């Protein structure tokens, strides 16, 4: 499989798990969006673990997407909730 995995970020500040979820509709999955997933750094492992535990309740609470809250507010691309599973599986590798 020829797919570059993203790297985890170094924890510079604490970000609440709730900051990662949004109710806006996710963008359509395109080649460009997949490239961004590979290039943007993942949250720190501790944050990924919190998101993994919070994602089911977030979905029940009508949240539809994940945003890169660990980078800054300037990264506004929205991703489907499955991105949390991807991060979790990637950190296990």
Any overview of this molecule?
It contains 3 helices and 3 strands; from the N terminus they run βααββα. With 93 residues, the chain is mainly alpha-helical. It has one domain. The protein has a 3-stranded antiparallel sheet, with helices on one face. Helix 2 (45-60) packs antiparallel against helix 3. It is globular, with a radius of gyration of 12 Å. 19% of the residues are buried.
Proportion of residues in extended strands: 5-15%
Could you give the order of strands across the largest sheet? 1-2-3
C-alpha termini separation: 14 Å
Percent of residues in helical segments? 25-40%
Number of domain units: 1
Morphology: globular
Low-confidence stretches: none
Structural class per helix/strand content? mainly alpha
Mean pLDDT over all positions: 80
Total number of beta strands: 3
Major sheet size, sense and barrel closure: 3 strands, antiparallel
* Rg from alpha-carbon coordinates: 12 Å
H-E string: EHHEEH
